[in-house]
Amino acid sequence: MMQSALLPGWLRMVWAAALVLVALAHLKHVITMRGQRRWWHTGHTVMAAGMALMYLLPAMDHPVLYQAGLAFYVAAVAALAATTVTNWREEGVLNPLWVATTIDMVAMAYMLLPARTPVLTAVFVVYLAGQAVAWSLGLWSRVPVLAPVPAGGEGAAGSPASSAVVGLTAHTSPVVLASLAVMAAGMAYMLLAM
């Protein structure tokens, strides 16, 4: 197993274990949810599983796996971009969660490239660190269009629910928020360590 100052073998195992738990948390939602939430959790399940594999199986030891992974994640980026645009057209609102998930998937594909540029790597690290903070603090639920609509039928700031309704709203579950923060941090850390 490849060693680096930022990524010794024991730390690879810790990150891999954490990301397997993230994948399992999202897989539970894939099984129990419907509609956009099911597909959104599917995307996070495959990202977490892919990250766990990257921590366990370094690229230099498994180049064919990384080539296949790159093709898979590029296809996933295309599917997410299409999903984002389709939902935008249907809902009349560009959902920032779908945009962010598409960018997250772009980061997954970027990590699988045989060569990366320092500037783009730094951009992704800063973005993913920001995502980790946003998920940790539950900031996505403060975005008006993403705020879960209360039972009374009004959206954020007293606006009618119909103006704030999108098919995918922000999660407020501590398990989901923690899992997304761990995944974003794991992605940022891997990019730093590569």
UniProtKB/TrEMBL annotation:
Matches recorded under InterPro entries: DUF5134
Protein name stated in the entry: DUF5134 domain-containing protein
Coiled-coil regions, chain positions: none
Keywords: Membrane, Transmembrane, Transmembrane helix
Residue stretches spanning the membrane: 37-57, 64-85, 120-140, 175-192
Lineage: Bacteria, Bacillati, Actinomycetota, Actinomycetes, Pseudonocardiales
One Pfam short name: DUF5134
